[in-house]
Amino acid sequence: MTGELLSIEVSNLTKRFDTVTAVQDLSFTIRPGAVTGFLGPNGAGKTTTMRMILGLVNPTSGSARIGGRRYRDLPRPSGTVGAVFDASAFHPGHTARNHLRTYAAMGGYPDSRVEEVLHLLDLGRVAHRRTRTFSTGMRQRLNLATALLGDPRVLLLDEPGNGLDPEGIAWLRDFLRELAREGRTVLISSHVLSEVQQIVDDVVVIRDGRKVVAGRLTELVGETASLEQLFLRLTSSRAAADRPPTDRLTTGRAAADRMEGAR
Ligand SMILES: Nc1ncnc2c1ncn2[C@@H]1O[C@H](COP(=O)(O)OP(=O)(O)O)[C@@H](O)[C@H]1O
Ligand SMILES: [Mg+2]
């Protein structure tokens, strides 16, 4: 692993799908050595933005760069950026080890690296089990293991806290903080503010594809106030009352579970 410090720079990014503008003139910078929360209600444009950073979705306009280069211009893209999008995208009949070996083969990494990430994510004892038997927490850890195969300097994790209990969130916080301490750039999305407040150093909050606020969490909310209060204060003028409840940013664990159940 090289010790390169890589920022993610999003500049005036816009994405329109037919009639829907998913992301609109969005700009922000994600610094290395920190965990940044990319936050906003369901449908705010988080996944679309992360897919544009990876070159999986073409922007209508604007650009996203990692260490000054577009993803596709990176010398070793999959070894530089590890990404995870969908916690349920495993082949249900594959064991965790086979899942990782498949991805390792695609990235050109040896099977010994599979054993390393299994150990790192404490999945060694369940590596022989088929992923259909995995709990959400185990799936999230297998996702992280997959993203870490290439020992990437940059991690993009789409809703890695979904479905985790408080113990799982505490574990995720410690794990991601350690990765950031090593100088990596860690971006995690979430629609659950209370969950992310414990994990992140910085935040970028979006709504309806536009930036609401970005910066260091402590500077934005102070020592006592919560991220929920900040979000409500910043968006109260654009009345949330005229939205259906599922379109609002979820601010508590119980509400998050409701939303999970509603999918
Ligand atoms: N492939 C697509 N085609 C059409 N609309 C899309 C597509 N992908 C996302 N959208 C729309 O773009 C908006 C943002 O979606 P998304 O990026 O998934 O938000 P989030 O991840 O914050 O929940 C939503 O209105 C969604 O329906
Ligand atoms: Mg999403």
TrEMBL record:
Alphabetical UniProt keywords: ATP-binding, Nucleotide-binding, Transport
Region of interest: Disordered: 239-263
InterPro entries membership: AAA+_ATPase (IPR003593), ABC_transporter-like_ATP-bd (IPR003439), P-loop_NTPase (IPR027417)
Domain named ABC transporter: residues: 8-233
Keyword flag ATP-binding: yes
GO molecular function: ATP binding; ATP hydrolysis activity
Domain of life: Bacteria
PANTHER family found in the cross-reference section: ABC TRANSPORTER, ATP-BINDING PROTEIN (PTHR43335:SF4)
Family: Belongs to the ABC transporter superfamily.
Name of the protein: ABC-2 type transport system ATP-binding protein
